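Support request, please re-run this one:
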Amino acid sequence: MNQTPRARHWRLLALLAAILVFAVACGDSDEDSTDTTAAAADTDDTGDSGCDHEPIVAAFVYIGPVGDAGWTKKHDDGRLSLEEALGDCVETQYLENIPEGADSVATFDRLAREGTDVIFGTSFGYMEPMLEVAANYPDVKFEHATGYKQADNMSNYFGAAEEARYLSGMAAGSMTESNTIGYVAAFPIPEVLRGINAFALGAQRVNPDVVVEVVWTSTWFDPVVEKEAAESLLNGGADVIAQHQDTPSAGEAAENAGGYWVGYNDDMSRFAPDAWLTAPVWDWGPYYVAVVESIADGSWSSQSYYGTMADGLVTLADVSDKVSQDVRDDIANVQGEIIAGSFTPFDGPVNDQDGNAKVAEGEKPDLGTLLGMDYLVEGVIGNAAG
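Re-run finished. Output below.
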């Protein structure tokens, strides 16, 4: 594989790019930003890098800024882990604040034309744009996070956040005194519905009287809207807030109101330590390393990857000692059962809001059923259609 002029350009200007990226990430600009590998100190293209191949050029396209402290930040942590693991054998760049739709089509097309070897798109709404562009560039590898469509040169990847959601729901259910937990959620797609349902079932495991009230924000990243949604739930009687959002704003609202908070994506405890309980956490680095290594050795093939707590893609942040020791022990025991495969969050019986059986007693839904989830379970207040 010949190294592209674009790739060499990024190597030469990496230090400058990193400074510019930092400046943009700290602001509210919708302009895209880029970064490259830490190999800027080595601008010699003679091949003295310890690699037996030209560097694999990998691009990451983000829906939000790397400074969101959540979803995008964790994907960028994965990109940095990739750089650390493979060193001069990989060159990366990222583009942030790329809207879904036509803007992402143009972004994916440009990256493919510029000689990128693999493009990672990290938002559900990138699925159709990636599929469209992938058809035009059969020699470029495309990797889409959270979707379900594939092509010969396009994989999808995601993970069982519902496993950690269930455990975090147990923590939340044990802490509410009002028996109302608020849930600030982005969009009513299967990924989000699955998380709400698993969380509610976990909360009901330790507190059968719990209800989970959902407010839809129609945004992945909007700190003001997220905080306002959390405040509305708190004002309505919720004393614990959970979220499927990309920032810690909901937690800040919970702390201001004297409530508790379950985060998402990362350990965000530093933003509202008094409210913090726990959170489902992602670790994307090993997957990104495996993908790039498979491209380098020629073994890459299109796949649907769904990681779990057992393989480490999904973890649970440390549970606050505000949660009783008995509940923390129970959470640890259930986590062990999930990892061993003897329990899943949607083991039947599971009913929808209207009492209709969705999973019969003794049954375990298959992955396809989970990926198509379009309902909310009993005890959840809200509309599954948004």
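The chain is about 35% helix and 15% strand. The chain has two domains: 5-159+283-307, 161-279+317-381.
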